[in-house]
Amino acid sequence: MEMTFSIIKPDGVRRNLVGKIFNMIESAGLRIVATKMIHMSRREAEQFYAVHKDRPFFGELCDFMCSGPVVVSALQAPDAVTKYRDLMGATDPKKAAQGTIRAAFAESIGENTVHGSDSKDNAAIELGFFFAGTELVNRAR
Ligand code: GDP
Questions:
Q1: Within the chain, which residues score under 70 in pLDDT?
Q2: From CA 130, how far away is CA 6, in angstroms rounded?
Q3: Which of 11, 37, 66, 93 could form a disulfide with 111 if both were Cys (CB 3.0 to 4.6 A apart)?
Q4: Average pLDDT, the chain
Q5: Are strands 2-8 and 114-116 parallel, antiparallel or unpaired?
Q6: At what angle do helices 120-130 and 80-88 cross, to 10 degrees?
C-alpha cells in the first residue's frame, strides 16, 4: 500500500468542488487517510513549492496558493502516486484527458484545481510537511 499527498487548490475550494473531487478520488479506488482545510501563509507556500523557486511563475504560484483555503489530504492505494497523477490529468487543463479532475474543473495552467505528489519520495516529504503521523488515522492495513 502506497500513500500520496493531495491538495484541492484555492480555486477548487472557492467554487465548492470539494465533495465532487473527493467523490472522484474515492471512485478511483483511493482511500482518504487524513484530510483538513487550511489557509497557507505566503511563507508556507514558498517552502512547499521551493523546488520551483527559479521558474518564472513562482511568485504567481505562491500568491495563488495562499489566496484562500485549500484542502490537504493523504490518499492511499496500491500505486497511489501514479493513480492520483492519472486522475488529476495534465498540468494544462487544455491538454488533460477526458474523465480527469483537471479536464472537468480546471480553468488555467496556473489555477488547475489540484496538486498531487509526482514521486514516492516527494509524497513522503509533502505528507510530512502538512501531517503529523498521528493524523493519518484512516490507514488500511
Ligand atoms: P503539476 O505536477 O502537474 O502540478 O505541474 P508542475 O510541477 O510542472 O507545476 C506545479 C504547479 O505550478 C502547477 O500545478 C501549476 O499550478 C503551476 N504552473 C505550472 N506551469 C505554470 C505556468 O506556466 N504558469 C503558471 N501561472 N503556473 C504554472
A1: none
A2: 10
A3: 11
A4: 98
A5: antiparallel
A6: 80
List of residues 6+ apart from 15 with CB closer than 8 A: 105
Q: Is the Cβ atom of 57 under 6 angstroms away from ligand 1?
A: yes
Residues belonging to the active site: 115
Query: In angstroms, rounded to a whole number, what is the distance separating the alpha carbons of residues 141 and 131?
Result: 19
Q: Residue 100 gets which letter from DSSP?
A: S
CA 9 to ligand 1: nearest atom:
16
Place of cell 501563509: 41
pLDDT tens per residue, range 22-59: 999 999 999 999 999 999 999 999 999 999 999 999 99
Q: Is 112 in the pocket of ligand 1 (CB under 6 A)?
A: yes
Question: Phi and psi dihedrals of 18, rounded to 5?
Answer: -60, -50
Q: Round the CA-based radius of gyration of the chain to a whole number and report it.
A: 14
pLDDT at position 141: 81
